[in-house]
Design a protein that fits this description.
Helix content is about 10%, strand content about 45%. The radius of gyration is 15 Å and the shape is globular. It is mainly beta.
């Protein structure tokens, strides 16, 4: 597993989380047997529900109907982790000329540092569920286009705004 170094995320504390802490927290939330009741697993579209948040941490439940995906994106300055609750997710990452594919079945997850570029897809036949954490709160996501020259930024979304 390729984890961000603790120096990237700062020392663990009330406002900072190590990669291992993020993954343990995802595992804790993923163990809730009522998670499947929080989303409509028959909708046919990807959707997500915020499970909890603070200024330092956001926790989301994502629902992935078969064949759905995120497109290539990053999470700006936020580090994070995600854990597959049910189903099978494929995470693709790209660095320089190298692309890595990682299949994550129920109970498997990974953590990542800021500016981690990836594409996540449900490659199973059933709706998948996953728990995602971001620290600090997710505020921007850069979307990327696949071009002959590699991934190119195509826009930045502002996310997580509260009214």
């Amino acid at each position: 597993m390729n984890l961000a170094s603790p120096a990237t995320l700062g020392s663990p504390g009330i406002d900072r989380f190590s990669p291992a802490q993020l993954l343990r927290t995802a595992r804790l939330f993923a163990s809730d047997p009522e998670l499947p009741d929080l989303v409509d697993r028959q909708s046919g579209e990807r959707h997500w529900v915020e499970l909890d948040s603070s200024p330092y941490l956001q926790i989301w439940l994502h629902s992935w109907p078969a064949g759905t995906h995120t497109g290539w994106h990053d999470h700006g300055e936020s580090a994070g982790a995600f854990l597959t609750v049910s189903g099978t997710l494929l995470e693709q990452t790209a660095q320089s000329d190298r692309r890595t594919d990682r299949t994550l079945i129920a109970g498997e997850g990974r953590s990542f540092g800021p500016n981690h570029v990836h594409h996540v897809a449900n490659v199973g036949v059933e709706t998948a569920l996953s728990v995602h954490l971001y620290t600090p709160r997710l505020t921007t996501m850069t979307r990327y286009a696949v071009t002959p020259a590699g991934l190119q930024p195509k826009g930045v979304d502002q996310v997580g705004a509260r009214s």
